[in-house]
Amino acid sequence: MKSFRFIVIGLVVLIVAAGVQVGYFLYWSAQYRCNDVEFIGLRGSGEAAASPGSVGSDSLGSTRTVFSTLAASLSGNIHSFGLDYPAVAIDSAPESLATQWRVAGLAEYRASVAVGEEMLRHRLAVRRDWCGSRTRFVLAGFSQGAQVIGDVLASDGLLGGAIVGVVLLGDPEYGGGGYLSNIDADPGRSGIFGNRAFPQEVADHVASFCRPHDPICSIGDVENSYEFTDRQWVTRGLAPHLEYGTSGLSALAGWTLKAWISREAPPKSLIRYVKVQAMCPVPGPPLSAPKVTDLGVASGAARVYWESVPGADWYGVYRVSGKLIERFRPAVSEREVSWAVAGLLHGRPYSFLVTAGKCSEESVGSRSKIATVP
Questions:
Q1: What residue ranges define each of the domains in the chain, with the CATH number in brackets?
Q2: Distances (CA, A) of 341 to 32, 64, 322
Q3: Which has the least CB within 10 A, 47, 54, 272, 321?
Q4: pTM over 0.70
Q5: Helix (H) or strand (E) holding 227
Q6: Do 327 and 316 contact (CB within 8 A), yes or no?
Q7: Are strands 361-362 and 206-209 parallel, antiparallel or unpaired?
Q8: pLDDT of 152-170, one tens digit each?
Q9: First to last CA, the chain
Q10: H/E element holding 374?
């Protein structure tokens, strides 16, 4: 009986060992297979790394949504790789965080970034040497991970075109050049470590996303009372910096990478869409239709007036026929807003429909009176 027990235990050990070996084989074969696209994600400060001893897991952190959106939109094969660099955590207690950032050097943070830069360079070099031109690379980084990627790009460029697209989320050196840079709702700001400018050939392949009032990538606008002070940390803390996944920007970043992989420049309409999405962490309640108050006409032109709608970020102005004339974001402080429409024909009657919107949600329309253009 005892010998039978030993045989069973031995078989179990062999099966487990074989399973582990198969797992490692699958993991390493994935690492060395040359895919059409390799996605390299760099997590932010303090985000969890791969579990010690785990097989096939990664360290994508907040860039995971970027990858999942990208993978779902591509027809070719794509492999994700989470760079397992230190990504040291920063004490996020509001009363101490601002003071920490001011400490010259931030030795542990700087060291973590430096290690990340070398690991990223090594990964790219090894994969390029192994796969040649068959595999194209896209990079995504959040927070500290964005700084690592940005620093490497600023010094090394796109590696002869091997890197086809880059997205940065909450970059501590936000504010420099990029095809979709400066798309936040706080214009004129920069990252907590200043702003980084890329050479134009690099900037054309970089999209940098920064949420409004993010104290890591959007500081310095004293005029609008968001000066980088201890009070800012106490009143807002890191919340705006930690909500990229829920704001929709991570998914948008994935679509942007897809456009580059498909050798299409990201459509310019994304810029307006990003500005709106940056304000929207989660869908809100349905908006009411704006109340149209007047329609004034002049020679070849008209101006439609309506009352503002609480919670609206933009309004749509349509011809009654349904043709969109303009969609825009008014100043949120205006109680009544208006929009001028030019190029109208003399002697013809016109009427317009106005809707209110927030993010991708749009209210039902409210119709103006009919007026004839003189």
A1: 35-277 (3.40.50.1820), 292-372 (2.60.40.10)
A2: 58, 44, 15
A3: 321
A4: no
A5: none
A6: yes
A7: unpaired
A8: 999 999 998 999 999 999 8
A9: 106
A10: none
